[in-house]
Amino acid sequence: MNVLALLKSRFQPAIAALISDPARQRELLEMIRVAQDPKFGDYQANFAMPLGKQLGKSPRDVAAQVLSAAKLDDVCQPAEIAGPGFINLRLRDDWLADQIGAAVRDERVGIEPAARPRTIVIDYSSPNVAKPMHVGHIRSTVIGDALCRTLRFLGHKVISDNHLGDWGTQFGMIIYGYKHFRDDDAYKANPVQELGRLYKLVSRLVDYRESQQALPEAERKLSQRQAELAAQKDAAKSPDKQVAKKASDAIRKLTSQIAEQSDAVESLRRKIAAVENDPTLVKILADHPDIDQAVLAETAKLHAGDEENLRLWHEFLPNCRDEIKRVYGRMNVQFDYEHGESFYHDRLAAVVEDLRRKGLATESQGAICVFLDGFEAPMIVQKKDGAFLYSTTDLATIQYRMENWKPDAILYVVDHRQSDHFDKLFAAARLWSYKGVELQHVKFGTVMGQDGKPYKTREGVAEGLESLLNEAVSRAAHIVAENDPEGHLSDAEQQQIAEIVGIGALKYADVSQNRTSDYTFSYDKMLLMNGNTATYMQYSHARVQSIFAKGSFSPEEIRRDDSPIDLSHPAERALAVMLMRFGDALAEVEADYMPHHLTTYLFDLAKTYFTFYEECPVLKADTDARRTSRLKLCDLTARTIRQGLDLLGIRAPEKM
Ligand code: ARG
Question: In the chain, how long is the greatest CA-to-CA distance?
Fold first, then answer.
């Protein structure tokens, strides 16, 4: 049951009788919300004020008119109009009791599947395989997996696709590294580790060469801005107020630009110095002065079908994929498809050809470009040297997905730093022919360390994802042991629970943040027993379960009992209202693809349950009927938590 949707559907005809524009009707209906304060009821409708203004009537009269036209009496108690025209809605207790009774008997805890299921492709995780996965990849994987699970549960046809970066310059780097710097014994012993080392080595040297080339221009820009600043400072002294005001605005803008530009110059200088201070690297550079060009050439050869490079790529790829697979296994994440970039290679020439034939792509300075309205720079689909780009592959990917899966929506769960790429990609795709499909960049912020900078380990390299999982699990093991001083759990059980708790904590910490903001990574916070954490939710779930064990009641039997639910205690009623909001929370996740609405809800549910548990004895209830009714509320709470966690890819152990 989705209570908000039900209430909106009940108000809809009454609003439609007053306002004919469907968009405006929807806007007004959006003003029906969960009440901020239970004093004002369970739900609140705030549309009477704007509606009154629009109709030139008193909001209180409009509220009364809408209320008399809307059929609500089977769901709500007689509504109250408060203040300037707020409509306070209280659900009827008998209606609530019936709904809770139905949810208790229902395997889906009362959530109906979508009336109009959509086909949704979710592109997520998508790491570049030759590099070790890092903390940033957790966000895409965890958010993407949560969206897949939630949308699927809501009845949509979800196709998950891991768009692996298995064809880019990083392969040119490891091929070059393998040819020139490999340690045969190390490669034999652990190919992925050796490839990782080669990748790091070569990418550092390429980065050095690129920084060296970029530095003069960066310095020139910096001094230009500094000169502009000096000029504006003079202008600011002008007696002409307007001139002075303009100058002080410019000074403010320039100052921030200069700060940014000096950071950029500093970072280039640091990268250069770090390499130049390392004699081994200096020596390698002397022998490989054009390493950046050579790496590009290796990538180009691979793409052109060079036999040796292709053979190496086929040799490296399975190793890289196995490594990633292990991490997915640990995180319990599966994909329907893993069409990496290489999968689309043979389609790229035809994509560019088609765009040219339709007059959408044109040559500019040797490159083939798609010019898009509203963008300064065009989208390049083929470089001067014939190479295709990330964008070309993404266009081919859209074409493939549309031809094969005919989705209603394609969601890309990718770092916010790629916003510009996706804005252009979507504009180009629409221009090309894909107008009906919803294309969404489900973007997320950066994972930050406690120091306020992007999360890094001590060595300054983003930590391998696996060591991150290990650390979370080992910390969870301490907590599990501490919580079981009498040793009720065997060592094996403790270890199993620690894995569920540790990985759950990591996932929950990530999805419980509004995904668009940066989030601060902290093991201590994510494993808190008391707070908006997976650990707290898992613990609450286990505690509810323990009531059944303690009283030797079987949840299955309780579910089959058909005596009515009793909500006469305010804490019982509050819990019932909260349980009914599960559907609202899932609808919110669906509306803006933000899983944190679900964690916020689960946390509220756990708190409401806690109050109920404090105030309403369950096993010691004064009558059998009351005990059964309360056990049903307990059972539905535990199942709702378990279902909610499951939609986030988090398991809930029976004992903790
Ligand atoms: N491999 C890319 C990266 O790690 C992300 C790919 C996202 N998906 C896409 N279709 N572009 O930055």
Answer: 88
- Give the integer Cα–Cα distance in Å for 39 and 260: 50
155 pLDDT above the threshold of 80: yes
Which residues is 165 bridged to in the sheet? Answer: 128
Distance 418 CA to ligand 1 centre (A): 9
Centroid of ligand 1 to alpha carbon of 126 (angstroms):
5
Nearest to 446 by CA among 422, 465, 418, 470: 418
Give the C-alpha separation, 164 to 298, whole Å. 20
| DSSP class of 204 | H
Q: In a 10 Å sphere around its CB, with 0-12 CB exposed, 13-18 middle and 19+ buried, how is residue 540 labelled? A: buried
Measure CA 327 to chain center.
18
> Alpha-carbon dihedral of residues 484, 489, 491, 497, nearest 10 degrees?
-80
Q: How high does pLDDT run on average in the chain?
A: 94
Q: How far is CA 521 from CA 97, 218, 603, in A?
A: 42, 32, 20
- Give the distance (Å) from ligand 1 centre to CA of residue 155: 27
Structure tokens of 621?
A: 């209830």
pLDDT at 132 over 80: no
| Residues with C-beta less than 6 Å from any ligand 1 atom | 123, 126-128, 163, 165, 394, 397, 412, 414
pLDDT at 458 (0 to 100): 46
Spell out where 294-430 has E strands: 361-364, 367-370, 379-382, 409-415
**Alpha carbon of residue 248 to chain centroid:** 41
CA of 160 from ligand 1 middle (Å) equals: 14
Could you please report the per-residue DSSP string of 395-463?
HHHHHHHHHHH--SEEEEEEEGGGHHHHHHHHHHHHHHT--SSEEEEEEE--EE-TTSSB---TTSSPP
> Among 288, 321, 268, 110, which Cα is nearest to 313's?
321
pLDDT one-digit tens code per residue, 74-98: 999 999 999 999 999 999 999 999 9
How far is 497 from 480, CA to CA, in rounded Å? 7
Span from the CA of 350 to the centroid of ligand 1 (angstroms): 22
In 3-state terms, what secondary structure has residue 297?
A: helix
Count of helix runs (H) and strand runs (E) in the chain:
25, 13
Q: Which of 121, 125, 126 for mutating ligand 1's site (highest number of atoms within 8 Å of CB)?
A: 126
What residue type is 219 in one-letter code? Answer: E
Q: Which atom of ligand 1 is least distant from the CA of 127?
A: 4
Terminal C-alpha separation, the chain: 31
Other C-beta atoms lying within 10 Å of the C-beta of residue 395:
26
Q: Read off the pTM.
A: 0.90
